[in-house]
Amino acid sequence: MLFIRIMAMILGLLAIAAGLLFVGQGTGVVRWPADSFMMADKAWAVRGAVLAVVGGIVVWLARRGC
C-alpha cells in the first residue's frame, strides 16, 4: 500500500507541475519553448488549472492515506 501512496504522490506532483506550466504558457507568462503551440492560448491556461487542481487532490488523498 505504501508503494501506491508514493506513486500517487509522484503522479500528483507531476500533474501540478505540468498544470502550472500549461497555465504559464497559456497566459503568456512562460515563453519556453519559444515555438510552443500553447503560447497565449487561454484554453490551455484553463486546462492547466484543472490539471493542477486534480494533481493537488491526488496529493492530498495520498497524504491522507485514502
UniProtKB/TrEMBL annotation:
Keywords tagged on the record: Membrane, Transmembrane, Transmembrane helix
TM region positions: 44-62
Keyword Transmembrane: yes
Protein known as: Membrane protein
Lineage: Bacteria, Pseudomonadati, Pseudomonadota, Alphaproteobacteria, Sphingomonadales
